[in-house]
Design a protein that fits this description.
Layout (H helix, E strand, L loop, with lengths): L8 H23 L26 H37 L13
Helix pairs in contact: 1-2
Length: about 110
Amino acid sequence: MTAGKDVDWAAEWERTLTELEIDVTQAEQMLNASHRDVELRVEPWVPPQLPPMPANLVERARTLLDRQLKVSQELSAAAHESRRHGRAVSRMKAAQPARPVYIDTPA
C-alpha cells in the first residue's frame, strides 16, 4: 500500500476486517467436525499500517475480536483434548498384552 492523499482508509479498514473475518470463519469451520479439511492461511498475518479506525467500524471490530477470542479458547480446548487422547493411546501401546488365563474346571 502506498501512503498518500488518495488512499481510501475506510476501504482499507473494511478490507482488513473482511480478511480477518474470513480467517476466523475458517477457524470456526475447522472446529466443526464436518469441516476438518478446511485449510487455514499458512503465512502469518501482518497487520497493515493504518490510521485510527473509523468510528462506524468499531462495533464490527469488537464483534470480530469476540469471535477470535472464542475460537482461540475452543482451539486451546481441542488441543488439550487431542494431547489427552494421544497420551491415552501411548499408554495403551506401551502396555503389555494380556496373557491368556485358562481355568480347568470339572464339567
